[in-house]
Amino acid sequence: MSVSPRITYIGHSTVLLSMGDAHFLTDPLFADRIMVVKRKLPAGMALDALPPLAGVTISHAHTDHMNMPTLRRMDKNTPFFVPPGCAPFLEKKGFSTVSTLQTWEHVEVAGVTITSVPVNHVRGRFFPWQDTGVASYIYTLGGKNILVAGDVDFGSLSPFEEIASRFSIDVALLPVGGMREVAFYNKRHHKKNVHIDPETAWEIFTLLGAKTIIPIHWGAITVSKQPRDEAPLRLREIAGDKAGQCVTILYPGEGWSL
User: Rounded to an integer, what distance in angstroms lies between the CA atom of residue 137 and that of residue 103?
Assistant: First the structure.
């Protein structure tokens, strides 16, 4: 009996990807606040309820994606895969197996292939001149390619054009919001925008030629007064008649099998 890959949305950019007994986690965030901003939607699963992890990917060094309060609570023997410049942060916290993946480099773990792919976003941890990289990842499991993007800037779509030329994407997990959620949507061409909106996520999904889009990076860490799920629901509206076929909205704690 074949086993289908399963995606469980925990919240923000934290996703549990499972293939049989192999489990992987992206950008773990289980803290109840990011510095002064209190979390609005709780994580859909407790950190200590996670199954044993075959690996964890970190997309970049920002505090809501490489979250130290969360990492301090995790098993230090868990394998981590990170962009250039991020490994020292984890090694200082005692993690024993931290691998740096260059763009287009891949690794095989527990029958799953993880490929680092390019994305445009602000580098650094607290300052953009800090030498830390940014990545998205394609998980190839059960014959399916699942793209998990951490953060994506407005601007050039060229990284996704190249991804589409190299991979046939089955599922794209794309961010649809940011700290201000809807507050910045009407300023999408401002140079300081560093998070895409639902319209741009749909444009990227279309460019990729993916079969399914799952919105992430919404509702949990925000100062917006809009409804917490405004961004994913807006994505569904943008999709129109195609929404029923290709938009899958998961609330924290919900899962979906391919």
Answer: 10
Residue entry with tokens 């979906």: 256
Q: Which residues of the chain have pLDDT under 70?
A: 1-2, 120-130, 154, 178-194, 223-224
- Tally of CB atoms within 10 A around 235: 25
Cβ–Cβ < 8 Å for 231, 191: no
Q: What are phi and psi of 164, to 5 degrees?
A: -65, -30
How far apart are alpha carbons 110 and 164 in whole angstroms? Answer: 25
Distance of CA 94 to the CA centre of its chain: 24
The residues, any chain, with a CB within 8 Å of residue 179's CB and separated by 6 or more, are: 37, 195, 221, 222, 223
Structure tokens at 175: 């961010």
For 63, half-sphere exposure in the C-beta direction (CA atoms, 13 angstrom radius) is: 12
Please list the helix, strand and coil fractions of the chain in percent, rounded to the nearest 5, in that order.
20, 25, 55
Q: Tell me if residue 98 falls in helix, strand or coil.
A: strand
Separation CA 191–CA 189 (nearest Å)? 6
Q: Which residue reads 């044993």 in tokens? A: 52
pTM, entire model: 0.91
Contact present, 234 and 168 (Cβ < 8 Å)? no
Question: Which DSSP category does 156 fall into?
Answer: -
What pLDDT shows up at residue 128? 57
Choose which CATH entry (3.20.20.80, 3.60.15.10, 3.40.50.2300, 3.30.360.10) describes domain 6-257: 3.60.15.10
Residue spans per domain, the chain: 6-257
